Amino acid sequence: MTAVNSQSKSSLPSLRIEPATRWPSIDLRELWEYRELLYFLTWRDIKVRYKQTVLGATWAIIQPVFMMVVFSLFFGKLAKVPSDGVPYPVFAFCALLPWQLFAHAVGESSNSLVGNQQLITKVYFPRLVIPLSAVISGLVDFLVALIVLIGLILWYGILPGWKMVTLPGFILFAMCTALAVGLWLSALSVKYRDVRYVIAFLVQFWLFITPVAYASSIVPEKWRAIYALNPMAGVVEGFRWALLGKSSSLGSMLWVSLFVVLVTLLGGLYYFRRMEHEFADIV
Amino acid sequence: MAEVVIRAEHLSKRYALGQREGYRLLRDAITDAAARPFARLRNLFSSTNGNGIVAGQGDDTIWALNDVSFEIKRGEIVGIIGPNGAGKSTLLKILSRITKPTRGYVEIEGRVGSLLEVGTGFHAELSGRDNIYLNAAILGMRKLEVARKFDEIVSFAEIEKFIDTPVKRYSSGMYVRLAFAVAAHLETEILVVDEVLAVGDAQFQKKCLSKLRQVGTEGRTILFVSHNMAAVRGICETGFQLNQGRIIGSGEINEVIDRYLAQVITRNFVEVETPSFVLNNVSIEPLNADVIKTFETMEIRVALTAKRDIGDPGMYVGILTAENTRVAGLDFKDFASVPPIKAGEPFEMGFVIDELPLLGGTYQVEIHVKDMAKHKIERVANLFQFEVAETSVYGGRKLDAWFGSVGLKATPIKELPAALSDEAVRHRTALVP
């Protein structure tokens, strides 16, 4: 009896709850312990998204396809925007997919803390789970649309070749970019609801500085490193490089973009962790 | 034998006033930031207005918990009571790590399961099955653990037939049952429960209480907050009372509750008006004890002032349960008549109730004041709460929802075949072992 007792005692996790410190650790180990919750929250978002809709997951295809048609008509056909020698529709669609993944993930993750305040004020878990699941849940829509993109590529007779294996890396890159932005905005939105209004504007603005409708080759060579401070420029050119085999200007841009994302992401993680302890009190 | 599993030392939590209700607009932050240097400048130059301009840290904060220290041993079932705003919920939030203390610390041995609300994270569009897994994950249960207990949870909630129906089609009763069922199967060493029994019908409440009691017998530690004193008495062994963020009493649960109820009775009364009367005071008190108890004497006394001449004053007093079911009613004119009262004259009416038949719990008094000469009946908008302390009725057993709210002075009748007469039974049981 005593043996059992002492055994169970030693296996019990002990915990000390203290006032918040100014310099918290990022503590990804705890996040890992809550991976099942991450899974279930993501699964909930995915499962609920197209409930009670007639078209269901078709929406994931309709949106980028319509954008592509409009872009092809106005930018490709009428404005004759150069597309690095690739047919314009596939050129645009190849950029629209990562763009939509990003835009959707930024929107969802930025609003995620406020949208889940019910959870935040009633249960403890690492709050990082919430924006993270919001970003990941967009992946399903993306993968559905990716099938259409691959169909389109084959239709135009383009063979992506070995570069295609780098695609998952670029997908991850897009998601990290979204998460970096989402962490900052979601933590800010707990305190400042202005963020909700900023997001719509921000995403629209960001679309124009990202080479979705045009190729980044129209930016003069010497300005490209600065242009790549927008990490989505690196992501989009990366997608074109991996799938279409052509990108006039990936090289140095990619490194600049990666660096920017890394800094923003770490900063976002840190800021988020630092604000985390206040979420339940002020959300 | 039992070691301490929760130790809180000087635990304090400060909230900025208004912080819990609202959020700031960025605009405010910016204008504040912009105004601050000017305010400082102004302070610098004006000797008359040296303080109060730089807004912020000073008085607009509240200590929801103030220097609270306590120890809880393994297997203890502790009730935390106190009026609204006493800091009960804040304490539970700190223990379940939802919010951090401003000062002090808590040391906890073992996993804490928090049940601050039933159905946290339930999604209306998802089926009962999906919600079980989702809610369980949110509460910190492992998927395997849920899969193992799935059937048990479903049968506890009594929703077998609807398990694949979206919960938005559930009745509110089914919803609550399912939510509680998931939570009740949490297997953490420490369970923190806040007022979750305020929902659901009486029969289900009974089921929940007995589940909690069973959890208690498994050697797990429970902290329980409720305004339902009968439930607290039914579950807890010890307890402490919070008031304005401080612990003002602790010990055996019945003592703590009785002391608390005795304080609650002498609560401040705010004047209430009806078209013809002002109610200056309503007192609901025990006559010969500290607390109102079943089968003891209680007094309801209403002090009134007439706003105009009242030809034939009257009063009706109704007693309702906490769920607004009428248990009893008394009309003053059935007992006595009152002479006419002039405007502005204070007077009192009321009842002494002997052998109060109400069982332990929270009740409410409803009052109508009347001028029968003008056929006017005026309902007082407020209900007045009182608590009946649970006393040993029916041989002192724990009373739950099955016993209703009225205590009956009953004597058993039995007419048995001669072979089973008391004498014979006593004889037989003596032989059997």
Determine the structural class of chain B based on helices, strands and strand pairing: alpha+beta
Number of DSSP E strands of chain A? 1
- How many domain units of chain A? 1
Which bin fits the share of residues in helices of chain B? Answer: 25-40%
Order of helices and strands of chain A: HEHHHHHHHHHHH
Low-pLDDT segments, ≥5 res of chain A: 1-10
Give the end-to-end Cα distance of chain A, rounded to a whole number of Å: 47 Å
Total E-strand runs of chain B: 18
What fraction of residues of chain B sit in β-strands?
25-35%
Which structural class is indicated by helix and strand composition of chain A? mainly alpha
Question: Portion of residues in helices of chain A?
Answer: over 70%
* Beta-strand share of residues of chain A: under 5%
Helix-strand pattern of chain B, N to C? Answer: EHEEHEEHHHEHEHEEHEEEEEEEEEH
The first-level CATH class name of the largest domain in chain B: Alpha Beta
Number of helices of chain B: 9
Task: Please report the distance between the alpha carbons of the first and last residues of chain B.
Answer: 35 Å
Q: Average pLDDT value of chain B? A: 82
Which CATH architecture of the largest domain in chain B is right? 3-Layer(aba) Sandwich
Please identify which CATH superfamily of the largest domain in chain B we are dealing with. P-loop containing nucleotide triphosphate hydrolases
